[in-house]
Amino acid sequence: MNSIANNTMTNTEHIYVVGDLQGCCDQFNELHAQILLQDPDATLFIAGDLVNRGPQSLPTLRKLVALGDRANSVLGNHDLNLLGIAYGAHRPHHDAYLRPILDAPDREQLLDWLRHRPLAFQIEQHLIIHAGVLPSWTVEQTLDYAREVEQMLQGPNYVDFLRVMYSNQPSVWSTTLTGMDRLRCIVNVLTRLRFCTISDEMEFDSKEGLNKTPPGFAPWFSHPRLSASSTLIYGHWSAIGLQLQPNLIGLDTGCVWGGKLTAMRLSDHQLFQVDCPPHQEIN
């Protein structure tokens, strides 16, 4: 039995998880066509960061919305940033990548769809998140914490949260956190995390590969974690590329940087990939 409302599904058949799109719609179309040749009933689940950096954020969002029940996504940091800009909660330094969405006649439909995406989603023994989870979080806690933020984003006061979403603080998770600090910390874990300590302290300045690990920290997935009973599937970290480890799958293979766009069929973990050209910065 599947429960989209509870962010869980119990059947991996025809489910394909796709790494960060970042507005690379041509490559997304190519990958989708490749998958459909083998499985006309395929349903796509994106690991977040649907928009930004690539030149086709608007058609990317439109395609996902048009696919209806055949597509879903967890929210990534770039998706939340789009919401913050669109609703006046954040003033961008550079929004050329997102301007076509902001000016689109169907922007409200697209933004409403995006605002109602989950932050974590469980499919059988797979947990999909954009960035990571902390060592102390179980799968059940991760889903519960994600729902706290989702209720705010999908409720009437979502702009209030978007206004205070941008901060690295608090940098240490505690179950005693309350209010906006608690919600911000949950968002930062699920959409921005790369490095942390075993005691759930996070570091957000370092964005490079494992050879640039900040002193005193380690990649979030290198610690013993209470979520190890499930296979965690994430995107976000193109600098370390494809990761295929026991109970851990990283699918951000740097499409927007000239790498590949990668999908994985959940039923047998078969990979599907297309090559991607590097995209020029929009002025």
Automatic annotation (TrEMBL):
Signal peptide (residue range): none
UniProt cross-references to SUPFAM superfamilies, sorted A to Z: Metallo-dependent phosphatases
CDD domains: MPP_ApaH
EC number annotated for this UniProt entry: 3.6.1.41
UniProt keyword annotations, A-Z: Hydrolase
GO molecular function, one term: bis(5'-nucleosyl)-tetraphosphatase (symmetrical) activity
Transmembrane segments: none
Reactions catalysed according to its record: P(1),P(4)-bis(5'-adenosyl) tetraphosphate + H2O = 2 ADP + 2 H(+)
Domain named Calcineurin-like phosphoesterase: residues: 14-151
First-level EC class: hydrolase
Purpose of the protein: Hydrolyzes diadenosine 5',5'''-P1,P4-tetraphosphate to yield ADP.
Family assignment from sequence similarity: Belongs to the Ap4A hydrolase family.
Protein name listed in UniProt: bis(5'-nucleosyl)-tetraphosphatase (symmetrical)
